[in-house]
Amino acid sequence: MRLLFLGTAGAVPGKDRDNTSVAFDLNGEILLVDCPGSVIQKLLKANWNPLKIKNVLISHAHTDHAYGLPSLIHVLWLMGKKDEMKIYTPSVHVESIEKLINSLGLFEKEGMFSIVIEGIPLEDKLIFKIEGFSITTFPVKHPLPNVGVVVTFENKKVVYSSDTEPCDNVLKHAKGADILIHESNESLYITGGREGHSTAHDAGRIAQESDVKTLYLVHLGPSLFDRIDDVIKEAKEVFEGEVIIPKDLEEVLL
After folding, report:
1. 204 has a pLDDT exceeding 90
2. What are residue 46's DSSP bridge partners?
3. Per-residue pLDDT tens for 48-77?
4. Which of 20, 42, 89, 200 has the most CB atoms around it within 10 Å of its CB?
């Protein structure tokens, strides 16, 4: 399996970091997790085929996680996409996502491919399986209802936490994960903590208690962009494994 970091910043992007989004290559089919920015351009830069996007997970309806969705749909239509695309999002956000897409009349475009929006409950939920891959969502702790995701295959496990305060549900699902992708919107020493988000120290503690192999820190706040070494050092104070802050368009092969 390959995963691609399309963006690594929080709600405020920087000149080298766009809003956080991750793509998973599931044996040739792409699962896109969150949809800010120009996803098509980023996939093309990474030599991934955008027409392979089959499933999209919008973790929650905050702007930086969903605003690129109309553009994604429109460009895929222009590129000739014909097969169905499913969009998963917590049930409480289905109406918002429908309105976002319909505000530009995309459902009515002649020859538009089938778009199915499926609400998921705020509980542990297997949302689909494909060729040995299992995709499960779970609720996390954020001011807006929000979910993380677990991708498992061939005894491998990748967990993406999305925006969250430290919470037991991430700890539970990250147990023994090969990779934990956890937000570090804040820093214990640089910014202090903030409700609804985690510091690098928080993420490191979760990774350590979950016996994770590698911790990737994403959703960085703008105060951290120029302090990458300090943020990594903070997480490593409490985590014995490898800590990585990926660059945008960095690809990982498992």
Report:
1. yes
2. none
3. 999 999 999 999 999 999 999 999 999 999
4. 200
Q: Under a CB-based contact definition with an 8 Å cutoff, are residues 33 and 24 in contact?
A: yes
Question: In this structure, what token pair is assigned to residue 67?
Answer: 């605003």
Tokens of 14: 């920087």
For tokens 């956890």, the residue is 182
- CA–CA distance, 174 with 182 (Å, rounded to integer): 10
Q: Is the pLDDT of residue 196 over 90?
A: no
User: How many CA atoms lie within 13 Å of 245's alpha carbon, on the beta-carbon side?
Assistant: 27
- Which residues make Cβ contacts (< 8 Å) with residue 110, sequence separation at least 6? none
Tokens of 24: 């998973």
> CB–CB of 75/103 below 8 Å?
no
> Residue 113 has which token pair?
């491919």
Burial degree of 147 (CB within 10 A; 0-12, 13-18, 19+): buried
Residues 190, 227 contacting (CB under 8 angstroms): yes
Nearest residue to 227 (alpha-carbon basis) of 188, 253, 196, 197: 188
Give the mean model confidence (pLDDT) for residues 187-214.
92
